[in-house]
Amino acid sequence: MSPMSLFQVILFLLFATSAALAGDVDPISCGGGERCGDLLLPFPFHLNSSCGSGTNSSHFRLSCDRNATLTLPLGSAFFRVLEFLPSGSLLLDYAPASPSPCDPAYAAFSRPSSPAAALDAAPFLAVTPANVLRLYACEDSSLCRAGCDDVAACGRAGGAAKSGCCYPLALSDGSVWKPGEGLGVFAEFGCRGFASWVKNRSAAAGEPGVLRGIEVEWAVPRGSEIATCADGAVLVNATAVRGGVRCSCAAGLTGDGFAQGTGCSKGTSCSNGAQASGGRECCQGKFCSKKAVALAGFFVSLFFLAAAVSFWLFLRQPSKDIPWDVDPSCIPKILGRVCHARQFTYEQLDEATRRFDSEKTVDVVDGTVHAGVLDDGTVVAVQRIGYESREKLRLVLDRVELLSEVSHRNIARVVGFCPDSSNALLLVHEHFTGGTLEDHLRQVRGRVLSWYHRVNIAIELASSLMYLQAHETAPTFLHDLKSNEIFMDADFTAKIAGYKLAKPVAYYSSSHDQDVVCNFGHILIELLTGMRHQHPFDSVAPKVREGRLHEVIDPTLLTGKQLPAPNEEVRKVFELAVTCLLSAENGMCMLGVAKELMQIVRNNVGSSSKIEISLEDTFSSSSLLQMISMSPDSLHHHLPS
Prior knowledge:
- The chain has 18 helices and 26 strands.
- It is an alpha+beta fold.
- A hairpin with a 5-residue loop joins strand 3 (about 65) and strand 4.
- Helix 1 packs antiparallel against helix 5, helix 10 runs antiparallel to helix 16 (about 590-605) and helix 14 (about 565-580) runs antiparallel to helix 16 (about 590-605).
- The longest helix is centred in the middle third of the chain and has 27 residues, at about 290-315.
- The radius of gyration is 31 Å and the shape is globular.
């Protein structure tokens, strides 16, 4: 018998045995009693996809993964179920996919996958007054309320100043929000985002008084099939869900009260591992009887036996080379579809780079970069990225797709691509002939950067780094940027090299953000002093603390010993740079850096007529907080010029 025939026989025996025993097993119940980890699902919530073909039942279908994480899908948003509350409510964690570096609980109102929009559209859920909101970037400051002392927000540990606007729903007077309404009403008042917290009713001594999450009431539609109550139960109206009802058992009875659920019975409730009446073990659902448990054990054993035999047969098969799941010949079609960039021929790029002249080569993490000029006069940087394995090819294609979404005036864009015959991709980036920031600071280029040019460059870089961190598809944390990777155009506008971003994405953690801030501190020190310091905290920080700014500032900016700007402005910029170097200790985030830098400049606008930054065209008072909720296509219009 061939291995494949043997495998088919085993499968036949498995299914035949299952069919023979199926008549002795109770049909799978959709009436509650299912578990996901420690959570017992009440009716009408269920995990079985075959439960209830009707629309109403599908609204209450949850999923439980192998880590016992219970998830409620609502449209394009997903919520983790933390607890089923006895009051007929759910405690949900909305877990933003791209959290704010400063407030991990931040969620935007405007995104398609916004938890607020998903909850507002759910016909069987409604937000309860138990939630405490922190609203961000609201145009109407009259929304602010008291009562958010326990809610954490962006700032240093230990009680630093918080941002946002507090709004406890329980204290609402009905002028803005009232029970039964969704969170979308706050977007109508110009709020860009929110964070939600719920009082921790079971908090012990030393535990936090609030939990991140949203408490929502659930109910079933009045008149629907699932709204039928069992004997001993009455139908009660929901508090906030319009047209919603629940079944409630009479006094002395326990259960969920639904005819299709566990109904009502005498004795102790089976929730939280209690004992049923008569001392019997409390058990609900399809695995309660000893017979069902024995059958479940038999099926599991049979499954592992089949899996073991299948694995043995697999090992006996002759080995074959694993084919690429992405055909390299299809790369032009794939890239043309995802990034809409121009496809060059190898001959065009060979001519543009003068046969990839080694004198104009920059070594980077992923390959090499050659400067060149196209036949139409466009200056480009051609990056060669190898993909010797299918995993690397997949990473390259994913990264190119992300790069094509980057749209910021201070980041070089992708111009085009060219597949190379030697398992490599030639990626063509926008490039500039004005030299690098390092060239200008070292005076390799003729003109000296003025104080206000340097401040403007710092603001542009801060906004670029914030833009990359706030990217909706894949936040990028650029923590190793150097001055020779920042180019200057004819107007002294800073441009981060595109090839700097063509590497694997670093997803968010607090340490990533602090690394970005520390790296920015090094660049800011270099901007101010004109030179790169290996240990700026030892060489620059002491003199800044002692007020000896003329000893550390770039000498080309001094007129005698006269500083190029008011002493207070220069001192604060230096102190901000030192604070960035200590981000691992003080928790400074990139959003805070950008805000403080803009505040320093704004406070000194009236002190000099030489300033070259148009504050009216850069940040509004709240746009830094709005950045997180903006799409990549619109975000750069609100960043510094």
